Amino acid sequence: GHRKIAYISGDQTSVTKKRTDSFFSTCSELGISIPAEYHLAGHYHDIVDCAKNTKKLLSLEQRPTLIIFPDDYSFIGGMETIKQAGLNIPEDVSAIGYDGINMAKLLNLTTYEQNSDGIGRTAVRKLLQLINEPDLPPEHVIIKGRILEGKTVKRIEV
Question: What is the pTM of this model?
Answer without folding.
Answer: 0.88
